[in-house]
């Protein structure tokens, strides 16, 4: 068997639960595929070399840099972006917590933080310790908030999730 | 920026991957986790015309824990997989401790063990651990498979015994000696950033509490990871003590030839290498259950 490298390929993936099929150029970054081909502009591009974390998405449930993935690599994968967190105009509890705690200012970093934080919440039982949480979020940079409010928001979301009969606030 | 035009393939066997490399010659690059290569493509520092994605080759993503205690880690085993693996934590705790200092979780979910070793950044943590633990690299080239011991593998910054036509298949670690103490410590500007200086240490003692061996390798202090040779002779038959540890730290400061860059000066790196060595040896001794005499 020989394999032949190609300039473009068809891909199929599940993006926020929706089946997507497209022909993509091999060099197309996943981030650009999401933003430009699927018009899901919630995923932001800051540095395009892995440092800032703004482009973080969930790939098969795990956080990854969409600026360091090619769309063709994601054939058959399941992708979650910030657009998939809330549905029908209703914010997810984590997003609510960000809003209440003033965990965003310009909002450029926010989609990346939300995706990393949603992974942290899905993999940590209870309320993560501040130190642990700061380490888990250290791969996301924010130029505005100074991080305190982001940490508060994630801890609060974890706390609310713990309550047996959560009362919706706000 | 965005990658320049390129042709992509994702073979499912190592033989297919090597065949594509042979066809494409210097024009091709292997893609593992992409956490070092993709930034270079995005910035167009590297412009391969063919990209060979290794992520669909199942054989490369296997961890084979041998009955004998040794572990063979497939080249595309993710750093994150390794850090969460119970067997790895038990059998290769030094490697796990180092891996946790590589970048951040959303990077370790993609970054691979083989990619780090093949990339051979002089500041990278995993290559230093391969030296201390005496790992063996399994390589497949156009003329067949071969092995390269870690001590002969790192040739210069970003240069190893893996040629452009070769594929690194696996990194094999021999069993860590029973009762050994270990430590990986580093100083970096930020948690998750590349180390300014990192130290991997492994010591083990006999039943009488005297040392049988000590091994150290550092990253961030030269063009390759640097192993400090001859420590076994220096420590053998002695009990761990503050003065012995200071002696080893001095040996490290005198052996290394660190460089100056925008991150830190050579003098600072030399000093920090000594300090981290002493701390790592204290920690390794306590993990081996050894008391360090004042
Ligand atoms: C923000 C950021 C911070 C980082 N911090 C650190 C850090 O602190 N410490 C650290 O060590 N690293 C760090 N890295 C890099 C690390 O994450 C990479 O995982 C690692 O350097 C390369 O592994 P990879 O699997 O991503 O390889 P790739 O990026 O896919 O490949 C790297 C190189 O190795 C070659 N290669 C890969 N696999 C093979 C193989 N099987 N056979 C032959 N050649 C192969 C490729 O062709 C390429 O030239 C960081 C990266 C980022 C983006
Ligand atoms: S845009 Fe991907 S990490 Fe900055
Ligand atoms: S809110 Fe502006 S960068 Fe984080």
What does this structure look like?
The complex is a heterodimer of chains A (170) and B (294). Chain A is of the alpha+beta class. Chain A has 2 domains: 8-84, Roll (Ubiquitin-like (UB roll)); 93-164, DNA polymerase, domain 1 (Orthogonal Bundle). Chain A has helices at 30-37, 93-100, 110-123, 130-137, 148-162, and strands spanning 8-15, 18-25, 56-59, 62-65, 78-80. In chain A, strands 2-1-5-3-4 form a 5-stranded mixed β-sheet, covered by helices on one side. Chain A is elongated and about 55 Å long. With 294 residues, chain B is of the alpha+beta class. Chain B has 3 domains: 7-53, 2-Layer Sandwich (Uridine Diphospho-n-acetylenolpyruvylglucosamine Reductase, domain 2); 58-173, Uridine Diphospho-n-acetylenolpyruvylglucosamine Reductase, domain 3, CATH 3.30.465.10; 181-287, CO dehydrogenase flavoprotein, C-terminal domain (Enolase-like, domain 1), CATH 3.30.390. Chain B is 34% helix and 25% strand. Chain B contains 12 helices and 14 strands. The relative contact order of chain B is 0.12. The chains are: A alpha+beta (170), B alpha+beta (294). Chains A and B meet through strand 4 of A and strand 1, helix 1, helix 2, strand 3 and helix 6 of B.
Strand-helix topology:
The complex is a heterodimer of chains A (170) and B (294).
Chain A: E1 8-15, E2 18-25, H1 30-37, E3 56-59, E4 62-65, E5 78-80, H2 93-100, H3 110-123, H4 130-137, H5 148-162
Parallel strand pairs in A: 1-5
Antiparallel strand pairs in A: 1-2, 3-4, 3-5
Helix pairs in contact in A: 2-5
Chain B: E1 7-9, H1 14-24, E2 28-31, H2 37-42, E3 50-53, E4 63-65, E5 71-74, H3 79-84, H4 86-91, H5 93-99, H6 105-108, H7 113-119, H8 125-132, E6 136-141, E7 144-149, H9 150-153, E8 154-156, E9 159-160, E10 167-173, E11 181-188, E12 195-205, E13 211-219, E14 226-228, H10 231-235, H11 242-255, H12 266-287
Parallel strand pairs in B: 1-3, 2-3
Antiparallel strand pairs in B: 4-5, 5-10, 6-7, 6-10, 8-9, 11-12, 12-13, 13-14
Bound molecules: flavin-adenine dinucleotide and FE2/S2 (inorganic) cluster (2 copies).
Flavin-adenine dinucleotide binds at residues 29-37, 39, 54, 75, 102-103, 107, 111-112, 114-116, 118-119, 121, 124-125, 162, 167-168, 193-194 of chain B.
